[in-house]
Fold these 2 entries.
Entry 1:
Amino acid sequence: MITKCLFPAAGYGTRFLPATKSMPKEMMPIVNKPLIEFGVDEALEAGMTGMCIVTGRGKHSLMDHFDINYELEHQISGTAKEEQLKDIRSIMHSAHFTFIRQREMKGLGHAILTGRKLIGDEPFAVVLADDLCVNEDEGVLKQMVALYNQFRCSIVAVEEVPDEETHKYGVIKGEMIKDDIYRVDDMVEKPEPGTAPSNMAIIGRYILTPDIFDIIKETPPGKGGEIQITDALLTQAKKGCVLAYKFKGKRFDCGSVPGFIEATNYVYDNLYHE
Ligand code: G1P
């Protein structure tokens, strides 16, 4: 059973400055819901109840968002406005939240290792909240949990991207073992243009087995001088098995302005209910 989901959320969100100068990028709203809440919804749908958030300096609002706001609750209690809090109240009822601070920004691998104390020795999911994933049917994490139950190894979500965009992602190469499922034999973090092993880009959804923590510890800094989860996963793939899964659904890169606008329009047209 996968019961915990890790949300690395310590990054600066520089692509959204000045909005993210004092507001965590994970709190940027898509219509009226912060990005992180979409991620938490997806994890809950996949059966996880332990939300483990790796925060950093200036990220207090992330903690406050999943806590009671007594003044506000008191003020709107018994009015029609209470309805607006229904979803977040239901999340707080179903999930529990733990937080840990990442003091230095040393890369995604380092952020995941920082979360070790919250996860312990069990398989877990990772959600990068600025990749917003939607699907009419089962959410992406739920699809990945079903796959994990079958294969019992680490899994990364992938999507085909145009060749000229591979340099923005971790990119995998692998042998297809079943429809939409690949056994990874190579993966590269943000390959230089023209050198990517394929156009299958890693999207911010992972299922990781806990041996990844010791592997990360041994992983030297890679691209950009940062400790990369992509490099640790390649080691894990060589030692045993890592799968890449071409998920069903749509993904928006909400870390970029065009992706954020696209997501906003999509959510407003398809998911927003007044
Ligand atoms: C991270 C990962 C990268 C992955 C991407 C997905 O990069 O390092 O492998 O493809 O997330 O969004 P970032 O976008 O944080 O630079």
Note: The two ends are 35 Å apart (CA to CA).
Entry 2:
Amino acid sequence: MNIGVLGIQGDIEEQEEMVRKIGHNPVRVRRVEDLSKIDALIIPGGESTTIGKLMEKYGFMEALRNSDIPILGICAGMVLLSKEVLGRKQPLLGLMDIVVRRNAYGSQRESFEEDIYFKGEKIRGIFIRAPVVDRILSDNVEVIAKEGDNIVGVREGRYMAVAFHPELSEDGYKVYQYFVEEVCNL
Ligand code: GLN
């Protein structure tokens, strides 16, 4: 599969490495026209406000809302896929029925590592100024990852979002595999 990585801002190269690691072909997506070359898209971690503004400017918001490309959102990507960010207005794709809380772990725990459950399996979760899912707005959303009681991974049809950084951990490739095998093969 040709898996696009949105190349606007954030940890783009790490995503491309993971795509290679699971045996697929990464494609850097910089312009809306690049969307025609890909079978799925990863929105990397970074700064969701910056990425969102540029996505709007380059026409990605409209293009992705009108396309059926499966999307995996990581950290800032989760924020961008959400319908609403608590207490804040910023450009969002709004493709998933979730409300998120940005920087949910606050300043004391800006970044940390912890075992989490992903589809019932224990994996390592690396959190960097991570959001959490505060509220789920429809039955179409499946919780796929939890850190304690916090919802840190969700799936809704062809969309999937995780609050942690699977590109940074040993066993994080499982998250990408799940995306390609389960979410993209609808
Ligand atoms: N706190 C960032 C945001 O809300 C996300 C951080 C990240 O992607 N590592 O945009």
Note: The longest strand covers residues 111-118.
